[in-house]
Description:
four-stranded antiparallel sheet
Amino acid sequence: MVEKYKDKEEVIFDLLDIDNNSLQILKCILEQLKYPKNIKFNFINADFLTYDFSQKYDIVVGNPPYKKITKNQELLGEYKANIRNKKTNNIFSFFIEKSIKLGKFISLIVPKSLINAPEFNITREILAEQNLLKICDYGVKGFKGIKIETISFLLETSPKKYSENIIIESYIQETLRKNKKSYLLSDEFPYWLIYRNKEFDKISNKMKFDIFQSFRDRQITKDKTKEMGKIRVLKSRNIGNNEVKNFENYDCYIDDTDNLTVAKFLNQEKVVMIPNLTQHPRASFLPKNTIVDGSVALLT
Length: 300
């Protein structure tokens, strides 16, 4: 950003982080770099969500933390005090709302669940109220060694400007496309479909929606399973196209299903298994004497 705005008369960066060590490391890095005299840095060691900013900004950029607050209810209440989306405890959503209040142009990198999880319905409404200009889909390429899918967005908060189109840049498909917001962010579907096209519409027009109830449970963890047992535990990798795949040294079992909510599906007919998170959709029926772990969603 120094390079991008080096020709401006004066550029002031307010660099805020809750971790003072990160700021100290950044100071050391900046001391080694040569940057123009028109660039100034202010270091603020504070919690972004509770910090009282005295001014508005031209640009707000950041990588907010992705985490849910469950134990510290007092802090959660403080975070939610001036927030519209109170249906989530994931604080990256709070960062989005506060950033919109602070700046003219906003760009944040956030989990891809923003565009489809029900808990972020209100957050998507808030984003759609702004002049949303671009979404970048990084898939799992956003952060090296981390398998969480991420996107970033760019929006303008000016109420006087509204572009009908949005740019979708995909690091997965290596594509750059422009499409109508009313098409990709349509209320016709419960979440944003950034890759929607004619082929999708052709298939969706033949389908009946809202016929399945979904279930997912994370109770079965690795420490509860073993190499042999009475009941096989299937994982997402076991799901093929209407088949169950077997892998050497991959299968695991469990003997006791007491206190497991997922056990209610044991030997129930016509239960459909799908991977909970995948770029390769597939489905199969749940076989007898099997249950699933949290990597699989069950549809009935």
